[in-house]
Amino acid sequence: MLTTLSIRNVVLIDKLDLDFKSGLSVLTGETGAGKSILLDSLGLVLGNRAETGLIRQGADKLSVSAEFDISRASPELSALFNEYDLDYPDGNLVIKRTLNRDGKGKIFVNDQSISAKLLKEIGRCLVEVHGQFDNQGLLNPAAHRDILDAFGGYQSELDAVAQSWQTYRRAVTELANAEQNIARARSDEDDLRHWVSELEKISPVEDEEETLTQKRNELMNAEKIIESLNSAYGALNGNADIIGAVRQAQSAIDRANRLVDGRFDDIVNILEQTLINAEEAVNEIEDASRNVSLNQNELEAIEERLFTLRSLARKHQTTIGDLPRVLEDFRARLNSLEKGEDGISALRQAAERAKQVYQDAASQLSGKRKAAALLLDSKVMAELPPLKMDKARFVTLVNKQAETEWNDKGFDSVSFTVSTNPNSPQGPLNKIASGGELSRFMLALKVNLAQSSNVGTMIFDEVDAGIGGATAKAVGERLSRLAQDVQVMVVTHSPQVAASGDHHFKVEKSTIDNITTTTVRELNTDERQEEIARMLAGESISDEARAAARVLLSA
Predict the structure, then answer these.
(1) Element (H or E) spanning 286, and its range?
(2) Closest CA relative to residue 94, chosen from 28, 5, 216, 215
(3) Coil, helix or strand for 464?
(4) Quick check: helix, strand or coil at residue 72?
(5) How far apart are CA 395 and CA 414, in angstroms?
(6) Torsion over CA of 360, 361, 366 and 371, rounded to 10 degrees?
(7) d(CA 471, CA 205)
(8) Three-state SS at 7
């Protein structure tokens, strides 16, 4: 609900601060006084396009701020804040927008900077304006299904359809993927069998390349390795007789150690360990020499295997280490091909079952929609005669769409259609009705949809255009009824509509020193009576007009 509106330097408005309350607020004033400026200003904080032509002459910039009570706001508004990572306010939402002469401006929501696109989305969750935005709300055929669903209140059926749709789409996707895989495997079947046979013949092993490369290096350098080992063996156990020298040193230290009462024990131990290590080294060198292969056939076999492995790796665009995985993949594809038909059949049956569940849920939802449509039609039709539209017909069409149009909201299309004369055909609401008729159709609809509305404020711009007398009184009564559920504001030239308001604001224009300014003020009881009398009589207000105004206000 809109609670405050502050305007600075917008066209004829210099400075204006207004407080609004719940119920029905009416805005009146002479033609040209500036009522449209007030709506344009509110439109700025709802996301309408900001143009520098709106900046008051002599001012550098304009600013408009509005505060909304969102304690009863729709879940869509909260979801919008979460989507854009904005802090959702507890109770009040403040929007401020500025625009400079250079066309640059700023937009803030509770001191958080946002884009004009996001502001427009937020504005749609807060206020509905009828008479200016013909592509939104009730005039947008794409929104009719959601509007009917909100009126019908069959959320459990909507949830069942949404859930079954997701299950059905998953089943269809799994089936399509499986069929694609089978088709690809079947086209490659001969190649797959050849590749599997080829890889199985060589039986690649993980980390095999490193092992083979190391073994090949040994075979290629076998003679050098043996020569080095022999040299090492000769150095340890040959003419130099290192082991004998260590033993001789060990014997000499032993004799000395006995003379110094064991002070050379550490040297004795070192020489003893040296002797042990030297003997072990001789043995290891002997073993290593025996194990070095000089078999050239083995070298050729290793090089041939490495060549084959690398060739296969290039062929399948992978590495030698990944060849075992490639083989398993080819085996799996062949296996899926051999068993694929059974799997495809099972997936196809699952998709058919899921489709049937969806169709059953969508059929139940469709039945609920058709019942809700009949109820809505009867309620709207009951509103039309007092609005002097007793020959008009309102019909909500619920039709099953082609399968390509099915979605998570069912298979129905919903459209609001009207005919304004007995012999005229039904047609789209936004195409058939004239401006005055359209406003009254809107009003009849909104009175019945108010409790399911997602916004807290509705604004009707001259909904009474072209009507008067009893019809205007009926419009006022319906606006008053509508205001029991949502905050309603109406710009009106009708005294009957103005008299129905809970709060009355007058828009006035004055010129001082060649400077024209528009002001808006809330009228007290006496001022309100005088304004309605003016609306009845014109510039010259008679006692009869004042008496008639009192009658309207007391009705």
Answers:
(1) helix 265-291
(2) 5
(3) coil
(4) coil
(5) 10
(6) 110
(7) 91
(8) strand
Q: What is the pLDDT of residues 108-158, one digit of tens each?
A: 999 899 999 999 999 988 998 875 444 456 778 888 998 899 899 899 999
- Other CB atoms within 10 A of residue 220 CB: 14
Please give the Cα distance from 175 to 182 (Å, whole number).
10
DSSP string for 362-428: HHHHHHHHHHHHHHHHHHHHHHTGGGT-TT-EEEEEEEEPPGGG-BTTBSEEEEEEEESSTTSPPEE
Three-state SS string over 499-538 comes to HCCCEEEEEEEEEECCEEEEEEEECCHHHHHHHHHHHHHC
How distant, in Å, are the alpha carbons of 19, 25, 432, 469, 482 from that of 445? 28, 20, 16, 21, 10
Token reading at 394: 């309102």
Model pTM greater than 0.90?
no
Alpha-carbon separation of residue 16 from 5, 19, 41 (angstroms):
8, 10, 11
Q: Which two tokens stand for residue 503?
A: 């709060």
Task: Mean pLDDT check: name the lowest of 7-16, 210-219, 481-490, 523-532.
Answer: 210-219
Q: Which amino acid would we find at residue 490?
A: V
At how many degrees (to 10) do helices 265-291 and 242-259 cross? Answer: 170
- The answer to whether 37 and 22 have CB atoms below 8 angstroms apart is no
Residues 6 or more apart whose Cβ sits within 8 Å of residue 522: 18, 19, 503, 504, 505
Residue 291, judged by CB atoms within 10 A of its CB (0-12, 13-18, 19+), counts as exposed
Cβ contact 195:441 at 8 Å: no
Task: Report the distance separating Cα 536 and Cα 479, nearest Å.
Answer: 20
* Contact predicate 83/99, CB 8 Å: no
Give me the torsion for CA of 261, 263, 266, 269, rounded to 10°.
Answer: -20
With CA atoms as reference, report the closest residue to 38 among 541, 355, 489, 470.
Answer: 489
Angle at 105 between CA 101 and CA 110, to 5 degrees: 145
**Torsion (CA) 451, 454, 460, 463 in degrees, nearest 10:** -50
| Mean pLDDT on 312-326 | 87
